[in-house]
Each structure stands twice: as C-alpha cells, then as structure tokens.
Amino acid sequence: MVQAARLLVVPGAMTHKFGISQPVRRSEDERLITGTGSFTDDVNVSGQAHAIFLRSSHGHGLIRAIDAGEALNAAGVIAVITGEDLRAAGVGYIPYLPLGGFTMDPPADTPRPALAQDRVRHVGEPIVMVVAETVAQAIDACEKVLVEIEPLPAVTDIERAVAEGASAVWPDAPNNVALIWRHGDHAAVESAFTQPLL
C-alpha cells in the first residue's frame, strides 16, 4: 500500500542542506566498494547469535494465525519472536520524527511496530524474527514458521491510493494521507497551483 504525502515548497525557500531533488554528496563509497570498509555482517564476536526475518509476501492483509511451534524446536534456535510477543513485553512503536523547520498538520495515528501486529501493510514487512546459533539454522527454522494472512485490497500507486473509496492502510487515515508537510509560504504555493500554465 502506498501512503501519499504532499510537500509544498516555495522555490528558493530551502535553507536546509538537502531536500527533494538536491544531490547529496556521499563520502563513504570509496572505502565500501574497494573492500576497505566494514559492514555489520563483517563483525563477528564469540558466542554471537544470528537473526532472520520472515517477511510478508502480501501488500495488505490481516494476520489470522502464526504457528512457530516447529521452528521453536528446530536445531540451534534460541528464540522465535512475533509482533504479539513484542506487544506482551510492552515494546512500543517506532516513533515518527518530523523534519526540523517544517510545519505539519497533525499526523494520522499510524503505529509502526518492529514486527507486524494484526495486519501487514506492505510486501516485505517483518512478521517474525527467528534467532539461532548460526545463520543456516535461523534460515531453516524461519522456513518452518507458518503464517496465515487474509489478503486485503492493496493499492500500488499514489493516485489510486488517495482516490475516494480506496482501501485504507490505517484506520485513522481513511484517504491514505498520513500527514502534510509545509515549508515556506503556503498561501503562495496554493495560489500558484491555480494559475494557468504558460
């Protein structure tokens, strides 16, 4: 599902280091592509465990059941964690952090748990995390997790997502607009939208 956000910007009003359509010079590429950098997968410590995530193959759907029993009993498995486990442990949601210097309409309530709870909202959303002694054991156990998802209508482009009657990703955002950012002279931008093109 696609959520739309409308960014209204007055030309020349950007005072930040970066923004939409502005190039961002990268400084880390040379060391990473020449083999002199370090990735998290390069770090190995004694006794470490490995995690593999089972992700949604549906763009939108209700999670009806998760059966992790066989995975829990697989060789080398330390833990199998679901969104319900996180909720029961009191783990909160990933917070939304607005950009500085922008005004924003109050955002819709779009709670984002680290692992899907109740429903999935995009392909690839993490549903279950399997922790095991080795990567191979974690992969093998993850393949034993059974997830039942009831598919819901999914929209894959912005125009259809904000159309009247489109399937809503979040109940608090029935038109699939979670928030609106504003920067610069909002009235001038709105006026420019009404001017005829030359």
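Next protein, fold it too.
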Amino acid sequence: MGEKLKFNEIKILVMCGGRGKRLRSLSDNIPKPLMTINKRTILEYKIEQYMSQGFNEFIFCVGYKGELIQTLVKQIHGIKAEFSDAGESAGILTRLFSAKSLFDDQVLMTYGDTFTDLQLSSLLSEHQKGSNEATIVVAPIKNPFGLVEFNDNKQVTYYKEKPILKYYIGYAVINKSAFELIPEKVINMPNGEGLVTFFKILMAMDLLGCYFHAGLQTTFNTREELEKTEQEIINFCTVIEDN
C-alpha cells in the first residue's frame, strides 16, 4: 500500500443495491436505504452521521431502483458523490469490485441499511496501525436462544443460555491491494457469498483484522426489525440534539 491517506481523504462506500425481499411490500417501490424513519430516510441519517465526523466524499453502489438513490443524494448539500451500478443482480463483492476504480488505496465500506455511532477515525486508525488487508467491525449481540452443541450420539456437550456473540455488522476498511488476492470466480459469487469468501481468504492468509464496537448498532431485514431500528435511531438523535 502507498502513503497513508488522511482520514478525511478516504471515501466512504455505501452499499445501496439490495432490494430487501424480506420486507415484502415495503420495498416494492423503494430500496431499503430509502425507508423512512421519522420522515427521513435511513440513508440521510447515515450521511449526516459521517459528515459530522468530517467525511464528505462518498461512493454509492446502487442497483435496485438506483435512480431513486441518486435523486436523493444529489439533493444533499456539502458532499461529493459518485455512483457505481453493477446491475440489480450483482452480489456485494461484485458491486465492491466494480467500484474500485473510484477510490484510492483504501475505502471504508458500509451497508446502506445499517446505522451505528461508530467513530470512523478510530476504526481507520486501528486499520492503518496494522498490516491487514481488511479490518471488519464486530459488535456484541445477545442471541435470543440457548446455544447447544451435541455429539454423534446426540448427547449435549455444550449449553449456554442466550449467549452474547460477536457479529460482523457491515462496516469494513479494505485496502485496494486486497482485490489482487481474489479469484475471479469469487468476485462473481451471488448475494453475500463472494464477500464472505473474500473475508475467509484474507483470514486464511492472516490478513483480516477486526475492530470491536460496543456502542449503538442497528439494522433491519424485516418489518419488526425496521420498527426497532426506527426507535433506536430516534432515541439516538434525540440524545444528540439534547446535548
């Protein structure tokens, strides 16, 4: 990798191409990042959060109804926006790979339907201190069920009630050089399979790091999760305004 970029010179790449089929009729006319919360879209909340931390250069990877994403983004003042469209059926890694000509040595990738209070400069600093090709953000999430393991005789060998596990939450810093390590067949895998395989390749090479985030993180794939996300974002923004 070349000379380290200043944090505010690193572009934020937002994945906005998915349809959100599990949301059923809610996503028939708009993509997930344009779902509204208190009369504003989740994408607007995300962009505002990034800009408040000094980031204003964005790449939007669009797909399903991408023209709606572009229309909204072009109305937001103070940002520099570029768009990449790999097609509606493209997987996450395909979208990311298709956009690599738009960023320099590093890019900060985030999913368009995920909101956190993550301090981006801290994440970037952690990544740049090491030699990993990518650093993914993980967070503790309480599993709502008891976790059980058993042997071939169906005897339980492990049981833990509602364990707190560490999950990848859709944020990552990725070096451009990492794409040189990916076989073409992996790049073109559907949905999220390519990205998962990409991370596994880097992990096997000891080139995948993690950044632990214990603060606010919320995302949605169902109506119920959207309602929960709405309340969490409203509460978060209320606290910020009160301060």
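About the second fold: The chain is about 30% helix and 30% strand.
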